[in-house]
Structure formats: structure tokens, C-alpha cells
Amino acid sequence: MPELEPYSDRSQLWDAFKGQVFGTIPAVTAKNISDPEDRNRTIIVTGANGGLGFEAAKQFAQLGYVSKLILACRSVEKGEKAKTALLAFKPSGSKTNVEVWSLDMASTASIVAFTERAGRELSRIDAIVLNAGVDLVSYQKASQEDDSYYEMTLMVNVVGTFLLAVLMIPVLRHQSVATPRIVITGSVVQFVAKYDVLAEADHKQTGEGILRWLSEESRWNGKITEERYYLSKGIVQLLERQLAGVIAESSKSAGKSLVVVNCVCPGWCRTNLFQQSGNAGSRIALKLIGRNGDVGARALVVGAIGKEGDKASHGQLLSEGRVKKCSSWCETKQGERIGRQLWKEVSELVEKVQPGAMAEL
Ligand SMILES: NC(=O)c1ccc[n+]([C@@H]2O[C@H](COP(=O)([O-])OP(=O)(O)OC[C@H]3O[C@@H](n4cnc5c(N)ncnc54)[C@H](OP(=O)(O)O)[C@@H]3O)[C@@H](O)[C@H]2O)c1
């Protein structure tokens, strides 16, 4: 088994714990929004029919700075119900136009169709909040159109998220008036991710890649239900750094406009996500120290339109609404190398799904 390069996330973990218990996330207001004159933004939120996505959508509709809001949901029926609920909260003078669009993050075809529709139908996009995510207690396959597959947590939280991010970049560049943003819902659980599983996958995979190696049922740890979820958020952080690096490079060397990519952590929140995973103790702890969804969702709003989510957050982790240090393992040589390998795998999938798309970055 390969050794993990030594690292310590103790100080980040302590900071995250203190923030969870004693801290909060400041709401976005006229004082900390970027460009307070702009009241005409278009924002897309994935997984917007429930949990943090819905709460963030509510805040976007209430703030008065967003004129079009797209609720991207895998079930249009659930999305329409969420829209009705959201409209009930919308202040009477609000000019936010809300639409429900179909998007299944477990399907590459759905992601491509969504991106094409965004390119066709939206004249302006300011931010896309890639929030949809799962925490599963049992193994599930996300089958692709070509019979290949990823394990469902990896597909939704990682592969689908970055496929959509990459495909949306040319659309965002074309349709934005200011610097557009891609907000990815990450998590401080990256500090407890078992990176040795990733190093093992990197070591043992024989050409199929880390993500496919991890996707086989025999690699699912049924005893520790959160292991895959935590790892998926560690991978998200690694890939966010890679994507941000590629964008920074192309804006420097090829003069392409910057698209800010940031990773936000809402903290530990009482949503539907952890309804099945964990044990009785963690469920009690969630009741005691968990945040309400509306507070956690502020993180997504900060990432998309807050000053803290501006250029300084590119490639970073925003926790409690501020740029914080990501897992130290992501910054080790080993973490960087495995991050590049994961990026290569995602890039190959992007090229397979949409040839030429990587050159657009
Ligand atoms: N809650 C927390 O403490 C916490 C902490 C850190 C990070 N996060 C992250 O925040 C994000 C939102 O989580 P949440 O707490 O709001 O969870 P949630 O209440 O379970 O909501 C998840 C949302 O994602 C959607 N979704 C799941 N699979 C999808 C797919 N294949 N295609 C499209 N949408 C899909 C769900 O839609 P359906 O209703 O159709 O299932 C739902 O709208 C996740 O990425 C999660 O990892 C949460």
C-alpha cells in the first residue's frame, strides 16, 4: 500500500468545529454584495428543489439583485412545487423571474442538454451554483448511455458536477456582463476524508483511472457509510483547484476572460442529506449543533454574488463566508499529483461527451 505523504488538518478541523458551534455565515446584503448597482443578474442553482439549494434560491429571489433564477432539478414536478413555495416567500415588489429546468446530474446526456439550452435560451448568466449532491448509505451505479458507469456519489458530487462546470464555461464567458462565477458546494468534511483510499486507488488502478476503480461495488465500504461522501468532497476540492488553475492559465496566456470558480462549505446543516447516514450519536449532534438550511445556504449566496466570492476566492475554499485553508493533503506533492490524475480523467470524459470542449477552457 502506498504511504500517504504526511500532512495535518488539525488546525483546519478545530477552526471548522469552532465555526460550527460558535460562528455563523453572514447574510449577503447591500453592504457585502459585489456590484450593488446591478439588479439584473441571472443565477442557476442545481438541486434547487430542496435543502440548501432551495434556501439559496429563496435568498436570491428575496434580495432584489437577481432578475432571473433557474431552478435546475432532476424532477421537474418537484421543481415546480419548490417554485410555488418560493414564490410565496418572494417580496411583492420582487422582479425575479423563476423558471424550472430539467437536469439530472447522474446523466451526461441530461447535462449536455442543459448546457445547450442555457446557451440557446439565456441572454445573460452571472453564476451557476453547482449544489446538487448525495450522501448514500448503499452502493448505487449511475449508468451512462454507453454502458460505462460511475458509483452514484462520485457521479453526482464529482463527475457530473465538473462535467457541467467545464461545459458551462464557454456559455458563461459568452453570456456574462461581469466576471461570471461557478460555485461548487464542497465541505469541510474534506478534513476527515480518507485520502489513503484515494492513494490506494491511484496505486492499484490499471489504466481504467481512479474514479472508475473506486466505482466498482467491491470498493464500496459498507461499514462506514460516510466514507464515500467525505472522499467525494475531498476530490471536489482537488478538482476545483485543478479547474481554477486551468482557467487562470488560459486567462493569462490566451487572454480568455476569467471565470471565478470557488468551493463553498455551508457547515453542517439540518437538511435531507444526512437523514439516513451516520449513527444515532451524529443525528443527535446534528440536532444540537447543526445549522438551519437558510443559514447554511448563505454560503452559496456569498459564493455567487457576495464580495467574498469574488476573484480572491478563485480556486479556494469559502467557509463561514470567508476564504479558508483547504485540506493540507490537497497541497502535498502527492495530493497535487493525484489531483492532476483526477483532472485528466474528468477531461477525458468531457472530451468523450463533447469533443473539443477542453480546448474551450
Ligand atoms: N447539509 C449539510 O450539512 C451539507 C454540508 C456540506 C455540504 N453540503 C452539500 O450541499 C449540497 C446540498 O445538500 P443538502 O444538504 O441541501 O441536501 P439535500 O437536502 O439532500 O438536497 C440535495 C439536492 O440535490 C438534488 N440531487 C440529488 N441527486 C441529483 C441528481 N442526480 N440530479 C440533480 N439533482 C440531484 C436533490 O434532488 P432530489 O430532491 O430530487 O433528490 C436535492 O434537490 C450537497 O452537495 C451537499 O454535499 C451539505
UniProtKB/TrEMBL annotation:
Swiss-Prot/TrEMBL keywords: Oxidoreductase
Keyword Oxidoreductase included in the entry's annotation: yes
InterPro entries reported for this sequence: NAD(P)-bd_dom_sf, SDR_fam
Pfam families from the UniProt entry: adh_short (PF00106)
Listed PANTHER family: PHOSPHATIDYLINOSITOL-GLYCAN BIOSYNTHESIS CLASS F PROTEIN, PHOSPHATIDYLINOSITOL-GLYCAN BIOSYNTHESIS CLASS F PROTEIN-RELATED
Coiled coil: none
The protein's name in its UniProt record: Uncharacterized protein
UniProt cross-references to SUPFAM superfamilies, sorted A to Z: NAD(P)-binding Rossmann-fold domains
Family in the record: Belongs to the short-chain dehydrogenases/reductases (SDR) family.
Superkingdom: Eukaryota
